[in-house]
Specification:
Length: 172
């Protein structure tokens, strides 16, 4: 199953997610620097990182949605893709609301702006994991014959641990 948006033969979605992921997850770091130093410049930097990250995130969301529409219905990959995409849309909303609350107070935003930014950055870990599963586990966008119904990675882990445990010598 190949990506649907591929100008010049290269899939766009994986290229577009890098910048929003970096910008949006780094913005709370600049907020922390603001708290430590008391210098509002750092929250202003976070404000602009959120602005650029959400714009890039919207582009990534569009290409990701188009790719998701190409995954066969009723498959595990379609379900994981839905959770991945819905989670990322939620994250974008969190960052957009954080940005809007910072609009008139860039150097000293309200607490809710920080809460939304940190929550969005934490949620990125989960949705990023799911995006990795789509690519690395299911083969979405990599292999023409992707295994869209591959078993859960957690069930694979449990089976491999059981096999390893059954090979261990019994100590009395």
């Amino acid at each position: 199953m190949q990506h649907k948006v591929k100008p010049m033969g290269h899939p766009m979605h994986p290229m577009l997610v890098v910048y929003p992921l970096g910008l949006l997850t780094l913005s709370p770091v600049f907020d922390i620097v603001h708290w430590i130093t008391g210098n509002g410049y750092w929250s202003t930097v976070a404000f602009w990182m959120i602005a650029a990250g959400t714009l890039g995130g919207l582009l990534a969301a569009v290409t990701g949605t188009i790719d998701w529409l190409g995954i066969p219905a009723g498959t595990r990959a379609k379900t994981v893709g839905l959770i991945h995409g819905a989670g990322n849309y939620l994250i974008l909303i969190l960052f957009i609301v954080s940005w809007l609350t910072r609009l008139n107070a860039q150097a000293n935003p309200p607490v809710i702006a920080y809460v939304l930014t940190f929550l969005g950055a934490v949620l990125f870990m989960a949705t990023g994991y799911l995006g990795g599963e789509l690519t690395l586990h299911f083969g979405i966008g990599i292999e023409p014959g992707a295994n869209v119904n591959a078993s859960s990675p957690f069930s694979r882990l449990a089976v491999s641990e059981q096999k390893a445990a059954s090979k261990e010598p019994v100590v009395s």
